[in-house]
Amino acid sequence: MKTLYDCEKNCKVKVIKLNASTELKQRFISFGIMKGSEIEILQHTAAKSTVEIKVAKMRIALRDTEAKLIEVQKI
Amino acid sequence: MSNEKIKSCPLTANHIKIALVGQPNVGKSMLINSISNANLHVGNFSGVTVDKTEVLFDYKNYHFTVVDLPGTYAFTDYTIEERVTHNYLCAESYDLIINVVDSTNLEKNLQLTSELMSMSKNIIIALNMSDEAKKEAIEIDSEYMTQLLGVPCLKVSAQTKEGINELIEAAVIQYEEKSQKSKLIFSEPVEEEIAQIVWYLEKYKFSDDDSYRHIAINLLKNDQKTYEKIHDNPIWIELQPILVEALKHIELHHDSDDIKEAFAQEYASFNRGIIAEVVNLKNQVEKKTLTEKIDSVLIHPFLGIPIFLFFMWGLFQLTFEIGAIPMEYIDAFFGWFGDTIGATIPNDDVRSLVVDGIIAGVGAVVLFVPNIIILFIGIALLESTGYMSRVAFLLDGFFHKFGLHGQSFIPLVTGFGCSIPAYMSARILKNDRDRLLTLFIIGFMSCGARLPVYVLFAGAFFSAQMAGNVLFAIYIGGAMLGLIAAKILKLTAFKGADEPFVMEMPKYRLPTVKLIWHTVLTKTMMYIKKAGTYIAAASMLIWFLSNYPHNLELTQSYESKIEIAVDEKEKTNLLNQLAVEHLEQSYLGSIGKFTEPIFAPLGFDWKMSVALQTGLAAKEVVVSTLGVLYALGGEVDEENSSLIDAISKNISFASAISFIVVIMIYLPCLAASVVFTREAGGIKYFFYLLIFTSITAYFLAYIAYNIALLF
Predict the structure, then answer these.
(1) Is the pLDDT score of B42 beyond 70?
(2) Which position among B243, B366, B497, B579 has the lowest Cβ density within 10 Å, counted as fewest Cβ atoms?
């Protein structure tokens, strides 16, 4: 199982599944992160504790714990 | 707007109430400002508007009320702001929704739009930032979009004011014509189920203000409130099995066990369809946007944090270096002003009240206006360029170690300006524990009102080259203490799971000079106004407390000594001694003497003790109190009359350090404490804060004092 956390910089992936709690899933969805959406990884912080991604032209910052909940597939 | 019509009778004229809704940071507040010439606070990060604000204006013979609702990504109750907006839209009465969307990112924005459209209310879509879209070669066919969606879509730009009048006209037309049917359609399976539920509701003539279609959609979306409404109705018995089947059907269709996710996908596919039709990205090439280029430097894994620290250091250097230039003139002006006014007042007591009380007190506060302006410009730039969210991104990993949230950075940095908006902006944190923790830490970020105290002491004890660095150290030191305090609180009082960190990083924008000017002017005027009213009154009170009661015996005994004295020097000495003794037996002196033993271990004399206590009313009063006390009792001679000199003569280095530590940590001012109590949700939190800050301040000041004594 590959998650968003495992992806390298500049990688483009597609979301397969959100493994988050109902509440957090809603939050992801309201930011456009849902099954089928395409994500580009823009930047990691030095310790990889935070990741910047791009979904539908919107740049979003996620913490590592959240990135690990998003199951993805390379495209 | 049209002036001659404003006086028309409000009863006969038409009232139009508009709810302004949109995702965060799409320019809602700015749009209101350009529609009505109001002056709402505008920034470039999500969550500038945390509470709904109403703006009134007239156009032709219509009275408009525009309600600016906090930005919301979707109809969820995730954050307090989203709850405010959701409740307002569902429960309050209004005539029209204006949905503000960012033209440069329709796909994301339409997510909310489609949810709004399923409410079957009267809607207008304002395609904001159309000027930016044009620059980015994004072409939107707004007429075709109007046709497709069945609701008016208008291109506007809050920045250039283009299309604003058309928007108001459209609102009037939409108001007069009442509801148009929005053409939001779902996929076939969902439409089938909606139709069936609507058919049931019609059959049983279920009575409700809401449209049947909206009720049906809400039932399918598992909307709690709709269920509560229908649940007590007899039709529920027949409706329930239908709903169970319907939900199964939809979930099967979407291959998902989450109905909300299924609906999100429904909306998303509808939106993709719309965008494919109306948006022409003709000249769009896959290249890095400017924002991405800037980001590759500013949030670089290794350079990001040093760059941020450099910016902050630069800001405090500027605050001190440039701020110091006009200080001399302001000081000289108040000196001259006091002398000139004093010369015209024959009565000794009144002259002393005006010159030593009001003018000295207010002057001491006004002196720091240049510093305040520079600090405010820095914060305004941070807010309006979009850099704030980057710093939250950079610092989240670090903050998280201390139990704080990356987004806590936003209220914390606002706290450098003033604690009051900082307490308010802590609302962006969803989790109550995280929010409370942040509220407790905000006080450690030294607010603008505390700056004068630092500038005064840094100027008195350090060379001009060092003073800027000292200032930076004080601010960073305060922030560090805040982080440590956060860790301690997180491990003890606020144990629990962490809030997820999911945050939008807005596009970089170059703020207009007007916007910066305006933000800074408003804040500076507030500071000056406070100096003229609140602080002038406090200075008068302090003057009174420090001058009375008059002790005639004391005065007479000294007067007789002065008469005997032969040379001038001795006379001056005696006069000064008289002033000092007089001050010591005044009301203020008694208070100071009474509390002196408490503060003695920190190295404070009674004057400093008093200044700390009066500072509870407002931090600026610390300086004005010192101003009054040292102007009256200090060694006032010709050359060294300024407060800075008085301080460096009368206060030891160690005492000054410990005084600064207390100022950094102890209880925020009265007004801020009131807001804190309200935002934290109870008076008990105020007492927690009081105990927490007092103990921390005392303890750390004691340590700092004893360390400083060693040097």
Answers:
(1) no
(2) B497
Mean pLDDT of B366-373: 80
Judge whether A12 is closer than 8 Å to chain B, CB to CB.
Answer: no
Residue in the block written with tokens 């913490």: A63
Distances (CA, A) of B600 to A60, B552, B592: 52, 30, 11
Q: DSSP letter at B408?
A: G
State the ipTM, two decimals: 0.92
Q: Quick: pLDDT tens for B654-678.
A: 999 999 999 999 998 877 888 898 8
Q: Please state the pTM of the whole predicted model.
A: 0.76
User: In this complex, do B261 and A25 lie within 8 Å of one another by their Cβ atoms?
Assistant: yes
The pLDDT of residue B685 is 93
Token pair for B122:
């009267």
Q: Which pLDDT score, from 0 to 100, does residue B176 have?
A: 83
- Tokens matching residue B86: 């959701």
Is pLDDT of B459 > 70? yes
User: In the A/B pair of chains, how many CB contacts fall below 8 A?
Assistant: 120
Residue A75 at interface with chain B, using a CB cutoff of 8 Å: no
Termini Cα distance of chain B: 67
Average pLDDT over residues B167-193: 82
Which of B108, B260, B292 is opposite residue A56, by nearest beta carbon?
B108
Q: Choosing among B502, B503, B504, B508, which should be mutated to test the A contact, i.e. which has the most A CBs within 10 A?
A: B502
Q: Give me the residues of chain A with pLDDT under 50, please.
A: none
Q: Among A14, A56, A60, which Cα is nearest to B104's?
A: A56
Interface of A with B in 17-46 (CB under 8 A): 18, 20, 22-32, 34-37, 42-46
Q: Is A66 on the interface with B (CB under 8 A)?
A: yes
Nearest residue to B105 via CA among B147, B82, B125, B133: B133
- Share above pLDDT 70 across residues of chain B, in percent, rounded to a whole number: 93
Domains of chain B: 3-177 (3.40.50.300), 188-255 (no CATH), 308-549+586-710 (no CATH)
Say whether A47 and B397 touch across the interface (CB within 8 A): yes
| Inter-chain touch A34–B265, beta carbons under 8 Å | yes
Identify the CATH class of A4-74: mainly beta
Probe site for chain B from A30, A48, A62 (most B CB atoms < 10 A): A30
Domain ranges across chain A: 4-74
Rounded (10°) CA dihedral B419, B422, B426, B432: 0
Q: Which positions in chain B touch A37 (Cβ < 8 Å)?
A: 268
**Largest Cα–Cα distance in chain A?**
30
**With contacts defined as CB-CB under 8 Å, which chain A residues touch B104?**
57
> Which stretch of B114-123, B316-325, B508-517, B518-527 has the lowest confidence by average pLDDT?
B316-325
How many C-beta atoms surround the C-beta of residue B235 within 10 A? 14
pLDDT at position B633 over 70: no
